[in-house]
Amino acid sequence: MNETGTSAARPIRTFHPRRGRMSSRHADAHAALWPRFGLMVTDGDRTPLDLAELFGAGVPVVLEIGFGMGDATAAMAAADPGRGYLGVEVHTPGIGNLLALVGELGLGNVRVACGDAMQLVHRIAPGALDAVHVFFPDPWPKARHHKRRLIQPANVALLRDRLRPGGVLHCATDWPEYAVAMAETLDADPHLRRLLEKPHGRPETKFERRGAVAGRPITDLRYERS
């Protein structure tokens, strides 16, 4: 209940809760590395997130929303040591796998958050991010579920606000109908400019491979904040 005695509206979830069972490798990595590299996202928490404390003063930060098993995140972070990578996910085996990769590859520039990505975004200061990656989010294909899609005008406005001027919002999907809806939403934001050159350095993800096997085309959409 809120101060007026009425129930507060619950936020619309853009993801399926996916707890899953960790392997022994994932569980061991979680136990050993979560205290140093992990961050729990709690609903309603608006405590400002200090990115400089997480990665060091002046380090550009990439936010990756929904990193799956984390293989692509680890590959990008390993190839790009000058930037910090903050990944957020709800799939516990994926969190365990990314932490295992962090340990195995010695990735000091990765932090792993568990919880609702948009709750986390609210805690990040405007203009604080160098890039935001949204790779293969849940397409919510049924029309009645479209309201749960991550790429909606209000979410895009919030993500764009967290980017520095010149920062890049990079989305990818293997669902053609969602690609069209994404492009329409992103094109409509007056402070985003579409980048037409092909993206560089994005590793193939597990979901991307699944889409390719199923014959679905891959669409990358990259926008720069003005």
UniProtKB/TrEMBL annotation:
Keywords: Methyltransferase, S-adenosyl-L-methionine, Transferase, tRNA processing
Entry EC number(s): 2.1.1.33
Reaction(s) this enzyme catalyzes, per UniProt: guanosine(46) in tRNA + S-adenosyl-L-methionine = N(7)-methylguanosine(46) in tRNA + S-adenosyl-L-homocysteine
PROSITE patterns reported in the protein's UniProt record: SAM_MT_TRMB
Organism: Actinoplanes italicus
Annotated stretches, region: Disordered: 1-21
Residues bound to S-adenosyl-L-methionine: 64, 89, 116, 138
Protein name (Swiss-Prot/TrEMBL): tRNA (guanine-N(7)-)-methyltransferase
Listed transmembrane segments: none
GO MF terms held by the record: tRNA (guanine(46)-N7)-methyltransferase activity
The keyword Lipoprotein belongs to this UniProt entry's keyword annotation: no
UniProt-listed CDD domains: AdoMet_MTases (cd02440)
